[in-house]
């Protein structure tokens, strides 16, 4: 048990009586799980077998918060986890809460699989979110802020500034901040202004000295200016060990008199609004999807509010005004200590203080691509001809594998065509550049661009336009379905034949996130995979509704059924007395049909391991239902993002798939997803080992109980830290590289 107390412990004890559970400290249970309402079913399984997905997501985000609380995590990384928590919660409100409210308002909401009515789910979210946000603010104020100050990194309040600081900020305000500000008064001639989503604002109370009348004004904190302003040191140089910051809103607040000359500034308070920012585009009615999406992005700024964050010392009459004008209810108001919006802590986390961060890590080239590290890039196509290559990012370098694969294909005169899916990519993507280079060289290039990738829509529109101008054939997939599959295919002329080189991955073609996300990818020139990808790309770009696949499972047609068939095959083998096991490594497990199949497997005695990062709606370890099911979650330095589906039967080769799909309705029913079967015995052993290590009792992880509560297991019985999966993999892959050099 950590010696540092949980900042959320006190607030968690205020959970509703209905759950009949209490907090158990920093490494115990987090969010309560509401008692579901029993509803009839026809599966023969208990009606209360599903956990609520929204509460499960909030539990995931509290696991992130626990890492921020953990003194064993480097300090700047703890600050980063606070920023990640805040960003995660913003998106949760913008999408999940907003979507639920929209469905309730339109009468489309139905009882959830967990048995809760829609408004009950909203109530549960509100209770949990209030407690989590209080805990989040507490971790920063009580633990992280003082710890940073001890290391010379201070976020100063106005009363902590020196006179020299004030003079510097006054100059900065006049020259760089004041010209950008637009104060908006509220009176009969000026209606209450529109407050854009996620903007930070100052609510200002002014007094006219002549009339003594009170006036309200709003000042928006400019989002394009740095949120944290660094103060100079006495000698004018940046000192890594004396990093002092002040928030932009505090600087504006200290100079409000410049904005309202002749008025008395009585008081001011910060506030922030979260709005519905999920997109709705009716593709069937949109003659041009790109144009329709651009219009919808404009409308996004005007979505209805779903959350109002205010400074905890705000006057009641100011809060009443905001609540009335923004049309939010009491449960949507969150009083928090300033500063609001801790996503700004990313600036602090980026400080170049190596002793306060994770040890440095540099990904290396996979030894199958280049047995010896060299300055020049490996010949990826030649390596693929020698055999399948299983990549594991970020331990294996993305730039010398997937990126090099596409760049070499673009430059190779024997390559005739490149076909590629793009879901999310970086702003200066070498992948985009490679596709443009290939098109410039006269190759046939197809890019299936998912412009509806949430919160990346604007970036993807820009890249779609850029690709089109370069002569790339750009399509947007199949109407009504997002294209989430991670696929690339290169067609090369080799003598009298054409060879297809393929990549099927679990993560986006994004060199930046590939350094932070844990993902898998298969490079292969196996003819069956090449044929499968040709058929799938034809589906995406043309008309091929009846395509059948050999090594792929493709959603929405065959993935759910294909996986359930594998579960049934394992159950049959168990009945025959064989040793069997089912293991999933995924981001989220929500789909009821998949969960029910796993329950049937457990009832047949099949051991089932679930290695999940985020949402999990299955109840493990319940007598008569899921006694053989174990669920573990691992969070850490890298974001666990790969998906593996392993079905092991004694005496047979494992059936194991990797790919882009989580077990959620959206992935299985409303997206084009692809899983590829792994056939190399060496690769099958590697994937089994990865899951087994993650599930091991000696590995630090969170365990899910049948009551829906998570408990952290990161210390042994004698108080020693358990093994860190990711640190162990860094060491293991480094040893692999050294062994390859000796060969």
Automatic annotation (TrEMBL):
<keyword id="KW-0067">ATP-binding</keyword>
<feature type="binding site">
    <location>
        <position position="88"/>
    </location>
    <ligand>
        <name>ATP</name>
    </ligand>
</feature>
<dbReference type="InterPro" id="IPR003414">
    <property type="entry name" value="PP_kinase"/>
</dbReference>
<feature type="domain" description="Polyphosphate kinase C-terminal">
    <location>
        <begin position="380"/>
        <end position="543"/>
    </location>
</feature>
<keyword id="KW-0479">Metal-binding</keyword>
<dbReference type="InterPro" id="IPR025200">
    <property type="entry name" value="PPK_C_dom2"/>
</dbReference>
<keyword id="KW-0460">Magnesium</keyword>
<comment type="function">
    <text>Catalyzes the reversible transfer of the terminal phosphate of ATP to form a long-chain polyphosphate (polyP).</text>
</comment>
<dbReference type="Pfam" id="PF17941">
    <property type="entry name" value="PP_kinase_C_1"/>
</dbReference>
<dbReference type="InterPro" id="IPR024953">
    <property type="entry name" value="PP_kinase_middle"/>
</dbReference>
<feature type="compositionally biased region" description="Polar residues">
    <location>
        <begin position="1"/>
        <end position="18"/>
    </location>
</feature>
<keyword id="KW-0808">Transferase</keyword>
<feature type="domain" description="Polyphosphate kinase N-terminal">
    <location>
        <begin position="50"/>
        <end position="155"/>
    </location>
</feature>
<feature type="binding site">
    <location>
        <position position="454"/>
    </location>
    <ligand>
        <name>Mg(2+)</name>
    </ligand>
</feature>
<keyword id="KW-0597">Phosphoprotein</keyword>
<comment type="similarity">
    <text>Belongs to the polyphosphate kinase 1 (PPK1) family.</text>
</comment>
<feature type="binding site">
    <location>
        <position position="424"/>
    </location>
    <ligand>
        <name>Mg(2+)</name>
    </ligand>
</feature>
<dbReference type="InterPro" id="IPR041108">
    <property type="entry name" value="PP_kinase_C_1"/>
</dbReference>
<feature type="domain" description="Polyphosphate kinase middle">
    <location>
        <begin position="165"/>
        <end position="345"/>
    </location>
</feature>
<feature type="binding site">
    <location>
        <position position="641"/>
    </location>
    <ligand>
        <name>ATP</name>
    </ligand>
</feature>
<protein>
    <recommendedName>
        <fullName>Polyphosphate kinase</fullName>
        <ecNumber>2.7.4.1</ecNumber>
    </recommendedName>
</protein>
<dbReference type="InterPro" id="IPR036832">
    <property type="entry name" value="PPK_N_dom_sf"/>
</dbReference>
<dbReference type="InterPro" id="IPR036830">
    <property type="entry name" value="PP_kinase_middle_dom_sf"/>
</dbReference>
<keyword id="KW-0418">Kinase</keyword>
<dbReference type="InterPro" id="IPR025198">
    <property type="entry name" value="PPK_N_dom"/>
</dbReference>
<feature type="binding site">
    <location>
        <position position="613"/>
    </location>
    <ligand>
        <name>ATP</name>
    </ligand>
</feature>
<feature type="region of interest" description="Disordered">
    <location>
        <begin position="1"/>
        <end position="24"/>
    </location>
</feature>
<dbReference type="Pfam" id="PF02503">
    <property type="entry name" value="PP_kinase"/>
</dbReference>
<keyword id="KW-0547">Nucleotide-binding</keyword>
<dbReference type="Pfam" id="PF13089">
    <property type="entry name" value="PP_kinase_N"/>
</dbReference>
<feature type="binding site">
    <location>
        <position position="517"/>
    </location>
    <ligand>
        <name>ATP</name>
    </ligand>
</feature>
<dbReference type="Pfam" id="PF13090">
    <property type="entry name" value="PP_kinase_C"/>
</dbReference>
<feature type="active site" description="Phosphohistidine intermediate">
    <location>
        <position position="484"/>
    </location>
</feature>
<feature type="domain" description="Polyphosphate kinase C-terminal">
    <location>
        <begin position="552"/>
        <end position="714"/>
    </location>
</feature>
<dbReference type="GO" id="GO:0008976">
    <property type="term" value="F:polyphosphate kinase activity"/>
</dbReference>
């Amino acid at each position: 048990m950590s010696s540092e107390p949980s900042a959320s412990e006190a607030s968690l004890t205020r959970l509703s009586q209905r759950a009949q559970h209490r907090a158990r400290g920093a490494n115990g249970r987090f969010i309560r799980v509401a008692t579901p309402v029993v509803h009839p079913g026809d599966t023969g399984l208990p009606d209360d077998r599903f956990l609520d997905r929204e509460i499960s997501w909030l539990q995931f985000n509290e696991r992130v918060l626990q890492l921020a609380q953990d003194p064993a995590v480097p300090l700047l990384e703890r600050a980063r986890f606070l920023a990640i928590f805040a960003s995660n919660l913003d998106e949760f409100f913008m999408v999940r809460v907003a979507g639920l409210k929209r469905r309730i308002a339109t009468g489309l909401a139905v009882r959830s699989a967990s048995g809760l009515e829609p408004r009950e789910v909203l109530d549960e979210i509100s209770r949990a979110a209030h407690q989590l946000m209080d805990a989040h603010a507490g971790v920063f104020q009580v633990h992280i802020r003082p710890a940073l100050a001890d290391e010379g990194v201070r976020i100063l309040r106005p009363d902590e500034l020196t006179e020299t600081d004030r003079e510097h900020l006054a100059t900065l305000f006049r020259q760089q901040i004041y010209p950008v500000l637009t104060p908006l008064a509220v009176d009969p001639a000026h209606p209450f202004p529109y407050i854009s989503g996620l903007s930070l604002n100052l609510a200002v109370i002014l007094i006219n000295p002549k009339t003594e009348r009170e006036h309200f004004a709003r000042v928006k904190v400019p989002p394009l200016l740095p949120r944290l302003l660094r103060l100079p040191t006495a000698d004018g140089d940046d000192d890594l060990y004396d990093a002092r910051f002040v928030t932009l809103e505090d600087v504006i607040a200290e100079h409000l008199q410049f904005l309202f000359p002749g008025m008395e500034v009585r008081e001011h308070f910060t506030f922030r609004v979260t709005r519905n920012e999920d997109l709705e585009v009716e593709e069937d009615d949109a003659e041009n999807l790109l144009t329709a999406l651009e219009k919808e992005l404009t409308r996004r700024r005007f979505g209805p509010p779903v959350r109002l964050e205010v400074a905890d010392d705000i006057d009641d009459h100011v809060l009443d005004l905001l609540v009335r004008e923004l049309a939010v209810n009491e449960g949507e108001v969150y009083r928090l200590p300033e500063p609001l919006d801790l996503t700004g802590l990313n600036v602090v986390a980026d400080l170049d203080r190596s002793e306060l961060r994770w040890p440095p890590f540099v990904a290396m080239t996979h030894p199958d691509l280049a047995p010896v590290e060299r300055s020049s890039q490996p010949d990826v196509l030649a390596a693929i001809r020698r055999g399948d290559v299983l990549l594991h990012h970020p331990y294996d370098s993305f730039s010398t594998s997937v990126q090099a694969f596409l760049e070499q294909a673009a430059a190779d005169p024997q390559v005739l065509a490149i076909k590629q899916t793009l879901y999310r990519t970086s702003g200066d993507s070498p992948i985009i550049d490679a596709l443009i280079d290939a098109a410039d060289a006269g190759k046939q290039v197809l890019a299936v661009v998912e412009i509806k990738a949430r919160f990346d829509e604007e970036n993807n529109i820009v890249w779609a336009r850029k690709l089109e101008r370069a002569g790339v054939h750009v399509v947007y997939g199949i109407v009504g379905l997002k294209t989430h599959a991670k696929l690339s295919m290169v067609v090369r002329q080799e003598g009298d034949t054409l060879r297809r080189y393929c990549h099927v991955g679990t993560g986006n073609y994004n060199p930046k996130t590939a350094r932070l996300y844990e993902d898998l990818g298969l490079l292969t020139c196996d003819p069956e995979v090449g044929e499968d990808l040709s058929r799938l790309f034809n589906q995406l770009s043309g008309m091929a509704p009846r395509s059948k696949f050999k090594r792929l499972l493709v959603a929405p047609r065959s993935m759910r059924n294909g996986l359930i068939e594998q579960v049934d095959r394992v159950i049959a083998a168990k009945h025959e007395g064989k040793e069997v096991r089912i293991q999933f490594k995924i981001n989220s497990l929500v789909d009821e049909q998949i969960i029910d199949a796993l329950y049937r497997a457990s009832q047949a005695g099949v051991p089932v391991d679930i290695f999940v990062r985020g949402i999990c709606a299955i109840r493990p370890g319940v007598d008569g239902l899921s006694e053989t099911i174990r669920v573990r979650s691992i969070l850490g330095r890298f974001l666990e993002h790969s998906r593996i589906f392993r079905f092991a039967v004694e005496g047979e080769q494992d059936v194991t798939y990797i790919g882009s799909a989580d077990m959620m309705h959206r992935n299985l029913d409303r997206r084009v997803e692809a899983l590829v079967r792994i056939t190399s015995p060496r690769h099958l052993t590697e994937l089994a080992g990865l899951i087994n290590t993650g599930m091991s009792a000696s590995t630090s992880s969170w365990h899910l109980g049948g009551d829906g509560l998570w408990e952290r297991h990161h210390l042994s019985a004698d108080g020693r830290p358990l093994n860190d999966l990711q640190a162990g993999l860094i060491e293991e892959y480094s040893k692999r590289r050294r062994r390859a050099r000796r060969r």
